[in-house]
Amino acid sequence: MRNSRIVSRLIKIAGKEKVFSSPEDLFCYSYDGTFLSVVPGVVVRPASTREVAAILSLASAEGVPVVPRGAGTGLSGGAVPVEGSIVLDLTAMDRILEIDTADMLAVVEPGVVTARLHRAVEEKGLFYPPDPSSSSVSTIGGNIAECAGGPRGLKYGVTRDYVLGLEVVLAGGEVVMCGGRTVKNSSGYDLTGLFVGSEGTLGVVTRAVLRLIPKPEARQTLRADFKAIEQAAEAITAVLGAGVVPSALELMDDVTIRCVENYLHTGLPLDVEAILLVEVDGPESTLAEQAGLIASLCIEHGAERVRVAQTRKEEAELWRARKAVSPAVVQVKPTKISEDATVPRSQVPALIRAIKEIARRYRLTIAIFGHAGDGNLHPNLLVDKGDPDEMARAEEAIKEIFQAALSLGGTLSGEHGVGLLKAPFMELEFGPCGMAAMKKIKESFDPFGILNPGKIFGRI
């Protein structure tokens, strides 16, 4: 970093071993799960709220931008630094401070890995439903920043639905508490809800109180294979219309299936356009009936085959294919642009048709998969960022995908956040007045303009 005085002061705050400024270290923090990359000025890894507050106080006084970061798995550029910025690596704040079985809540620091929390609460007969595909590495702080979801969002909701309270450090170093330990809270403005999904642009979360629920007694998984992707989309509508609410209802199209099969060699069908992966959970006595009804509806709507997992091993094998999608699709092209368009679930067939047509017109390979049960599709554009013509076509295609989603009553993002990649399209959804209102909120919480600049509103 050019200003060695700031580096020296960061060392005084956090200790020499927690401040990183070598070119090698800075490169490791220059990117997230996207193709974007900017080298920061310095990285600091605080171990306490007090240290975070001191760092933000310093940054605000010096006018230095700060980019909060968890595991760096985000897919919208939310953790990509700006030039000369301080990257605030929160992974050292990784304590599960409390699991309260009576009140069914957990108190955690932002660096706790999501899957670790899953295991810890399930050992006590409790359940934390949000499960992004990156849960084995992503952190609770990052999940809160992006309002992460995952396959269970259909039945259980997303991260926002499980955050009861937060400790947040504001831009000037002030520490505020919002929400608390109660399920009901109507005191004043909903600051907790405002911080969830704000991508570190309003404050830095240093502690979270999370709602837990009883762990479901049992679960069952099935896979249905469809010759036509439209049939799969119609089966989704039929299942939900029959009053069955699966804990997960996932879709993979033919491009995705081929990529995963080439990657894993697990025997996925290559003669179909789509597969649905469906999970039901609850009392064990009800699962067979639910799975049977779903299987019947899938067959009624054109499924070639339905396979119901009979053992935990078979269930894990079915989910292994879905979890492998992200690493599998990059075999086609070196660059993956993972989008997150979401529509009302009745409009899923229309959005799929629109994406397929956009791919054809722009001569692009687009893998479609995602949480189709709640309308949250992930069209992944498989391109080569070294090919300017292909990237230009991809940019136009992305704009049309978002326009299609919005025209169907949808939104730009269901769970990936806005970051840098979706920022140019925000006005399409919110209009100039909506964007102006959000900017006023940003200016109120961050008058210095130092917190994760460029995210949500575009590069400064």
What does this structure look like?
The protein has 460 residues and is an alpha+beta fold. It contains 15 helices and 18 strands. It has helices at 4-14, 23-28, 49-62, 114-122, 140-146, 153-156, 191-195, 229-241, 254-264, 284-300, 312-323, 325-329, 348-361, 388-407, 426-445, and strands at 19-20, 42-44, 66-69, 86-89, 96-100, 105-108, 126-127, 163-169, 175-179, 204-211, 213-214, 218-226, 248-253, 274-282, 303-308, 335-338, 365-371, 376-383. Helix 1 runs antiparallel to helix 3. The model has no long low-confidence stretch (mean pLDDT 95).
Tell me about the biggest sheet?
7 strands, antiparallel
> Alpha-carbon distance between the termini?
20 Å
**Helix content class:** 25-40%
Low-confidence stretches: none
Q: What would the principal axes of the Cα set say about the shape?
A: globular
Question: What is the CA-based Rg, rounded?
Answer: 22 Å
**Strand coverage percent:** 15-25%
Q: Helix count, per DSSP?
A: 15
How many runs of DSSP E, i.e. beta strands? 18
Overall structural class, as computed from helix and strand content, comes to alpha+beta
**Overall residue-averaged pLDDT value:** 95
Q: For the largest sheet, list the strands in their spatial order.
A: 15-12-14-13-17-18-16
Give the helices and strands, then pairings.
Blueprint: H1 4-14, E1 19-20, H2 23-28, E2 42-44, H3 49-62, E3 66-69, E4 86-89, E5 96-100, E6 105-108, H4 114-122, E7 126-127, H5 140-146, H6 153-156, E8 163-169, E9 175-179, H7 191-195, E10 204-211, E11 213-214, E12 218-226, H8 229-241, E13 248-253, H9 254-264, E14 274-282, H10 284-300, E15 303-308, H11 312-323, H12 325-329, E16 335-338, H13 348-361, E17 365-371, E18 376-383, H14 388-407, H15 426-445
Parallel strand pairs: 2-4, 3-4
Antiparallel strand pairs: 1-2, 5-6, 6-10, 7-11, 8-9, 8-10, 12-14, 12-15, 13-14, 13-17, 16-18, 17-18
Helix pairs in contact: 1-3, 8-10, 8-13, 13-14
